[in-house]
Amino acid sequence: LSRFRDSGITDDSVIREFVQVFLSVSPDHIGQLKKQAVDGENAQWCEIAHMLKGAAASLGAEQLALLCEKAEKSREATVSDRQSQVAAIEAAFAQVREEFIRLGLHS
Hints:
By secondary structure, the chain is mainly α. The chain has 5 helices and 2 strands; from the N terminus they run H-H-E-H-H-E-H. Helices cover about 75% and strands about 5% of the residues. A two-stranded antiparallel ribbon has the order 1-2. Helix 2 (about 10-35) runs antiparallel to helix 5 (about 80-100). The chain is elongated.
């Protein structure tokens, strides 16, 4: 969250709103990744992972962003590889959500 403050956004209600949007749309992105976990080349998979990566990075969720970056670079992969990546992304997202709750940024 220091990224927000470093960029001049110091109003906690604005930061809370960014967090709320992230937490509300990310499960949909993760669900889309699950649907796109197929064999072979998949540009949609990469696009979804890219969107999630950017959102996670903007909120300082570095581990989640790194996992999404790895998924984004997996233009060609097996179903098994993609399912493993989605499981890791889902677990990292759960940790991020719990941290935001702990910080009082999500109820």
